């Protein structure tokens, strides 16, 4: 039986502040996401803003001691699904980049992801990004007391696959609070009316990764970067959400 810690009003308020800082960091980054900027520069801007706010980058140093994540943001370009490591690569016209940001503020985590379009992209890639954003919102729309985790995955999968895209299954959403990853595991595919029953005070992320081609993934030798096996583009959007007595509240807007 999955045990999920329910957050108090005080904890939810702390997570609201952490989520607001995540959203603010995206706003700071957005003007810089353009052709010619390096992923390392985006990482520097994000880290500077997070630290100035009195918070700590959640991903920097996260993971196994022998291979911790080396940056503040995950920067996932084109065929990179998630956990892309920022470096000297420059963005160019027609790229898409998923930027994943996590912060630790006053003992609580906030976590979200946004896929930016760099300049103009092909109609099928534009459709991929739009569908991924809409599938996240479709999943979030099902979050309410008495609902089930399977409802979230079903809504995402139905929308994305209905438009001819595929859903990454190996990487999931997760509970979040005093730790970056807690129970429950939130799948982005599923069956309605199945899975854990949602209760007020549950806080978790929903973060669908949707592929233009097939759903299969491949982990690169750096131990972090995940790409599509067929090298076709992938997009991701993520929010942290709390179940409320009347529905839900997104904490990362």
What radius of gyration results from the CA coordinates? Answer: 17 Å
The termini sit apart by 32 Å
Overall pLDDT, averaged?
97
Q: Detail the poorly predicted runs.
A: none
Counted by DSSP, the helix tally is: 4
Q: Level of helix content?
A: 25-40%
- Helix/strand-derived category reads alpha+beta
> How large is the share of residues in beta strands?
25-35%
- The outline comes out as globular
SSE order: HHEEEEEHHEEEEEEEEEE
Quick rundown:
The chain has 4 helices and 15 strands. The protein is of the alpha+beta class.
Structure report:
This protein has 253 residues and is α+β, with helices and mostly antiparallel strands. It is built from four helices and 15 strands. Strands 1, 2, 4 and 5 form a four-stranded antiparallel beta sheet that branches. It is globular and about 45 Å long.
Please render the helix and strand layout as text:
Blueprint (H helix, E strand, L loop, with lengths): L8 H21 L9 H14 L3 E2 L15 E5 L2 E3 L13 E10 L2 E10 L5 H19 L7 H14 L3 E2 L5 E3 L6 E5 L16 E4 L2 E3 L5 E3 L6 E3 L5 E3 L2 E6 L2 E4 L3
Helix pairs in contact: 1-2, 3-4
Relevant terms:
4 helices; three-stranded antiparallel sheet; 15 strands; 27% helix; alpha+beta; single chain; globular; 253 residues
């Amino acid at each position: 039986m999955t045990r999920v810690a329910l957050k108090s009003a005080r904890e939810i308020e702390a997570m609201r502040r952490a989520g607001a800082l995540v959203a603010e960091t995206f706003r700071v980054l957005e003007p810089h996401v353009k052709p010619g900027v390096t992923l390392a520069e985006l990482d520097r801007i994000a880290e500077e803003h997070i630290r100035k706010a009195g918070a700590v980058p959640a991903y920097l140093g996260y993971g196994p001691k022998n291979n911790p994540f080396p940056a503040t943001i995950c920067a996932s370009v084109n065929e990179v699904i998630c956990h892309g490591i920022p470096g000297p690569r420059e963005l160019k016209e027609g790229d898409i980049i998923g930027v994943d940001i996590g912060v630790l503020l006053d003992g609580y985590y906030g976590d979200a992801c946004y896929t930016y379009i760099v300049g103009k992209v092909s109609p099928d890639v534009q459709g991929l990004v739009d569908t991924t954003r809409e599938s996240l919102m479709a999943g979030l729309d099902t979050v309410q007391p008495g609902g089930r985790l399977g409802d979230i995955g079903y809504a995402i999968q139905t929308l994305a696959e209905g438009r001819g895209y595929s859903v990454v299954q190996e990487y999931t959403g997760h509970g979040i609070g005093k730790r970056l990853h807690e129970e429950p595991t939130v799948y982005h595919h599923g069956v309605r009316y199945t899975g854990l029953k949602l209760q007020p005070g549950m806080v978790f992320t929903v973060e669908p990764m949707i592929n233009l081609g097939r759903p299969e993934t491949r982990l690169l030798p750096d131990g972090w970067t995940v790409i599509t096996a067929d090298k076709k583009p992938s997009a991701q959007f993520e929010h942290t959400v709390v179940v409320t007595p009347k529905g839900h509240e997104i904490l990362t807007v």
